[in-house]
Amino acid sequence: MDPSVFNNIKESQLVEFIRESNNTYNLTENDLQVLQNLLSILKHKRNTSNIVELDERDEDCGGRLRNFAETYASHYHSYFAIFVCVFGTIANVLNIIVLTRKDMACAPINRILTALAVADILLMVEYIPYVYYHYMALPKSLDFPYQGAIYMLFHVHITQILHTTSICLNLTLAVWRYLALRLVLTLTYLVTLNNV
């Protein structure tokens, strides 16, 4: 039922309509009175919550920002996400090609970067079917089949594993760089002391 219709109908009118067709509902007079009281409470709460929502929208940045976020999520996110995933996959394949050359592959930091590129490729390739299914196919069909539930279960676990792998590789990379810089500074200090 449209909310504006509910606001225009009085509780007594709705209860009277139910009373007239009571042979299908089998309600007692006491039940009808409780229903009327509940409807008046719900209508009162609905009216006060609408006022609060309008006041909150005006006070915070929910107006334009919320409209932009809702429009972006419903119309543009799926296409933008697929574009980013395809572009990121191509860029990471190029990273792997460069980092696995003979002269580059011997450095441990390049191995970490290669593993990071592989984890990101797997994550983006797995995300493309999810975006298509969740944002494009599912809203049109309004059907959630068993295969879709299995895929969502797979997607949740694989993305968590790949995100965790990526975070661990980034942390390893940061520690490796810190140690490399620390050792360079220490060695420079020791060489300077030895020369003196």
From TrEMBL:
Keyword Chloroplast set for record: no
Annotated SUPFAM superfamilies: Family A G protein-coupled receptor-like
Major site of localization recorded for this protein: membrane
One Gene Ontology CC term in the entry: plasma membrane
Keywords: Membrane, Transmembrane, Transmembrane helix
GO molecular function: G protein-coupled peptide receptor activity
Start and end residues of each G-protein coupled receptors family 1 profile domain: 91-196
Source taxon at top rank: Eukaryota
InterPro entries in the cross-refs: 7TM_GPCR_serpentine_rcpt_Srw, GPCR_Dmsr-1, GPCR_Rhodpsn, GPCR_Rhodpsn_7TM
Residues that span the membrane, as ranges: 79-100, 112-132
Subcellular localization: Membrane
Similarity-based family: Belongs to the G-protein coupled receptor 1 family.
Protein name stated in the entry: G-protein coupled receptors family 1 profile domain-containing protein
Highest classification ranks of the organism: Eukaryota, Metazoa, Ecdysozoa, Arthropoda, Hexapoda
